[in-house]
Design brief:
With 118 residues, the chain is α+β, with helices and mostly antiparallel strands. It has helices at 30-63, 87-117; strands spanning 68-74, 78-85. The radius of gyration is 24 Å and the shape is elongated. The model has no long low-confidence stretch (mean pLDDT 79).
Length: 118
């Protein structure tokens, strides 16, 4: 068999051309299809969650004024560290939302080169 780009002879199972170094076109496999579908589903879930946070943010932030919760860690039992409420709970919520946005944009930013190459 020959490479489509440089006509270099190659073996049937090669993934890269030994003449030009380019990736060779492969068959569409079940693994590739399932991986693509899973990626699309995860992208939909992340975008849906981020849009939901953005839409409900004002109502949730106002509702947190009178609420309180415990910050805890889970070891063999639940250990309550301290209670948080009011402005501290609102700040904690804002930091969690910011962390979600930063991690989503970091994921998209680091994956952009791979997605455009494929």
């Amino acid at each position: 068999m020959a490479c489509d780009r440089c006509d270099w002879n190659r073996a049937a199972g090669d993934r890269f051309c030994s003449g030009c170094g380019e990736a060779l076109r492969g068959r569409i496999t079940l693994r590739l299809v399932l991986g693509s579908l899973l990626c699309l589903i995860c992208t939909y879930i992340i975008s849906y969650e981020l849009i939901g946070i953005a839409v409900l943010f004002p109502e949730t932030l106002n509702g947190l004024r009178s609420a309180s919760t415990y910050i805890f860690i889970i070891v063999p039992t639940i250990v309550y560290l301290f209670e948080i409420g009011g402005v501290a709970l609102q700040t904690y919520f804002v930091l969690l939302v910011a962390a979600c946005f930063v991690s989503a944009f970091f994921l998209l930013g680091t994956s952009r080169k791979t997605f455009t190459r494929q």
